Amino acid sequence: xxxxxxxxxxxxxxxxxxxxxxxxxxxxxxxxxxxxxxxxxxxxxxxxxxxxxxxxxxxxxxxxxxxxxxxxxxxxxxxxxxxxxxxxxxxxxxxxxxxxxxxxxxxxxxxxxxxxxxxxxxxxxxxxxxxxxxxxxxxxxxxxxxxxxxxxxxxxxxxxxxxxxxxxxxxxxxxxxxxxxxxxxxxxxxxxxxxxxxxxxxxxxxxxxxxxxxxxxxxxxxxxxxxxxxxxxxxxxxxxxxxxxxxxxxxxxxxxxxxxxxxxxxxxxxxxxxxxxxxxxxxxxxxxxxxxxxxxxxxxxxxxxxxxxxxxxxxxxxxxxxxxxxxxxxxxxxxxxxxxxxxxxxxxxxxxxxxxxxxxxxxxxxxxxxxxxxxxxxxxxxxxxxxxxxxxxxxxxxxxxxxxxxxxxxxxxxxxxxxxxxxxxxxxxxxxxxxxxxxxxxxxxxxxxxxxxxxxxxxxxxxxxxxxxxxxxxxxxxxxxxxxxxxxxxxxxxxxxxxxxxxxxxxxxxxxxxxxxxxxxxxxxxxxxxxxxxxxxxxxx
Length: 541
Hints:
Residues 27-46 are annotated as: Disordered. The protein has 541 residues and is an alpha/beta fold. Helix content is 42%, strand content 11%. It has 24 helices and 16 strands. It has helices spanning 7-12, 43-48, 70-79, 93-103, 116-124, 135-138, 140-149, 152-159, 189-194, 205-218, 237-241, 270-284, 299-306, 320-333, 338-341, 374-388, 390-398, 422-425, 441-444, 452-467, 482-485, 490-494, 499-509, 513-540, and strands at residues 53-59, 81-87, 109-112, 165-166, 185-188, 202-204, 228-231, 255-257, 263-265, 311-314, 342-348, 356-357, 365-368, 405-407, 413-415, 477-478. Helix 14 crosses helix 20. The chain is globular, with a radius of gyration of 23 Å. The termini are close together.
């Protein structure tokens, strides 16, 4: 079988590297884009959108107030619709959609954590609505967003139809040729200093365990019994404990090929045990939230550092918008200077190397109820296409021109909201519009309305990680092979599991982590070995 070229080469065609010059100050030249779309619709559009529609959207958000502010009015006036949000717990996305899809009870649109084997199965059963014929010509911004992922055509060709929209992470502003993660932690730099730790942009997990213990013992914030040194939910704890020493633990890289062409399962490698033992140690020593397995991802957990002020470290992506948000909350609620009290860092092994996997250029997807009538489906695709346009992205990420920002005669952009982000100013934005089709990660690298300090951290974490990744060492960096990542068979479908939850279960089963892990591997191998055999045979063809 001819090997499909890796995503690295696919992404090179859609990513450019000239981002640094766009990040010069908080009043900088605007990214190239025309003015946001006007709130009023044309006569032709008014006729097209004469019938008011309510569009249900299943998404990981508890924000139901999405139809009643000035931002939502722009979209409502043009497209004549209201959102009906159906919240999905971020730590239960896969199972929730599995139930809804198979029972026919899914919302009009669903923000789904993509699983290739399940997707193929759903399409074969007619459980997802197919995009209309000619959709690429009719909705060019959606087509461009799918091209940006580098994988949409591969999946379409393999499945034989388009029943999904992937959410691209990066675009023209990304500074590297190979897409790596933006994972890491935001932490209380003032507390680190108070316990004698150096404030840095990267730490080994050994260093962090030591600092967390000192924070617990010395309580530099005078928090008392409420103190939680490390507050990470289950979905992020593997990155803290497993990632520094293991390369093949994620969905994207769990199956890998040795020099002899034989495939192995990364979760059965001894490197995994190193991280699991550290995880259990941190749990036993009281460095983690005692019920980390019940913590939601996102802002609710993040707030324990920036709002409640009881945590020293939290898991959030290294984005300028995240830093801006946490800095604003810290300044308001904790009466500290966030420029001195907040920092972002990524986690390395004890030698300072950052392990990684080449990431596919998407995170999540949009799927559609097969019972959608064509008129509503077209309305939905019109809205999504507008949101993915240059004008729509500028509106979603910067707000309303003249109200939230203005352009000076020299072409620079001035933020009119101070440190307040538009996702906090307009409640309709939060957890909805920035993650609808085009994820905001790419725009955050150049968004002139974000403060320079946090925008730089969002950019620099990629650059600094790249310095300590050996991209040519398969023990440190796993390159993406689409043939493996998108491999589908009955055996592969049976081997689908929530790896984060599985790893947490090993840790929580009891103090003998090694015995727990060995028993788990033994129990899983009857499901895994057929997949390994099939992949080995496929690559030998």
